[in-house]
Amino acid sequence: MKNNEQSELRHDLLSGNWVVICPQRANVKNLKQKECPFCNIEKQEKPTLIYFNGKEVDNFDKWTTAVIPNKYPIFSLGKITEEKAENDFYLKTKTAGFHELVVTKDHEKTLAHLPLKKVKEVIDCYQKRLLEYKKHNFVKCAFIFHNHGPLSGASQSHPHSQIITMPFVDNEFRLILDNAKEYYSRKGECLQCKTIELEKKNKKRIVFENDSFVVYVPFAPRFMFETIITPKRHEPYFDQITEKEKQDLAEALQTILFKLDKVLKKPSFNFHFFNAPYGEDVSCFHYSIAVFPRLKAIAGFELSARMEIITMTPEDQAEILRNK
To answer: What CATH number is given for 175-322 in this structure?
Structure first.
């Protein structure tokens, strides 16, 4: 399969989940590169967005943050097809989508250690690309995520984020949306807004707060030292973030990443955005960002029961992070 060929989505009848069949991604792990591809970004795919010191520019003469198409995309532009397979028992489909990388120039510095204005540039790129994706009717969801370190699944050590669009809402995210809708129908208020209200009231799990965002360890975390960054203003879509909120989000994101570095001695980590899907009523939803270090492999019980084992109370985790 060539790098630009479309991946295949196959449907699991038992779970209802979809799986991406993408053989070209095997090349990512098998690459033996003498030089960092992102330190030589001019040799990569044509950029879709370039920033230099807070301003959008047209070329790579000088750059500090750039958005480029992924050389080995999970989804790419193409025809949308759906077909039955093997006696009409299974369902598979090919779909169109975007897969892009948001790359910061410094090879050594993570977002925790860059100047704050460079973190803001990354957030500017996230917003600009999401505003572009939503113009396309084959984009239902856009996933922003950042992998760093060997336990995170990162294939390159150079700091970068990824954005992948999907044509539908996956089952796990659909459950989150349904829970938000069900709570709103019973209580007449946003579940995340209520969570912020309670967390600010008891203060036990709050790690950081500024004018626009609250960072807290969730009452029932999935990972040790997981934190949630959520806006105080009710908003389903991250792409509607204001300039002031972008500055405050840069501060909140950098602060928690720096705290994790200090507490856990520069761990592998992931963060990802929960952004409302397009094309449906999501007025009860409230976007957020989950940040979590990767301290161990996922074991058999967690995989089979889909239930996490957390060995320190969220309240103690928050106190440790808060005091660093």
So the answer is: 3.30.428.10
Q: Are strands 99-104 and 141-148 parallel, antiparallel or unpaired?
A: unpaired
- Please give the order of strands across the beta sheet that includes 213-216: 55-57, 49-52, 65-69, 99-104, 160-166, 141-148, 268-274, 288-294, 227-231, 213-216, 206-209
Q: Which residues contact 154 (CB under 8 A, 6 or more apart)?
A: 147, 148, 268
Residue 159 tokens read as 């700091």
Contact 207, 221 (CB under 8 A): no
Domain limits of the chain? 8-166, 175-322
Give CA–CA dist 320/323, Å, rounded: 5
Task: Determine the CATH number of domain 8-166.
Answer: 3.30.428.10
Q: Cα–Cα distance between 67 and 48 in angstroms, integer? A: 6
pTM across the whole model? 0.93
pLDDT, tens only, 139-184 = 999 999 999 999 998 889 999 999 999 988 999 999 999 999 999 9
Cα–Cα distance for residue pair 130/124, rounded to 1 Å: 10
Do the two domains 8-166 and 175-322 of this chain adopt the same fold? yes
Distance CA(232)–CA(256), nearest Å, equals 17
Cα 307 from chain centroid (whole Å):
22
Phi, psi dihedral angles at 173 (to 5 degrees): -70, -35
pLDDT at 28 over 70: no
**How far is Cα 286 from Cα 276, in angstroms, rounded to an integer?**
8
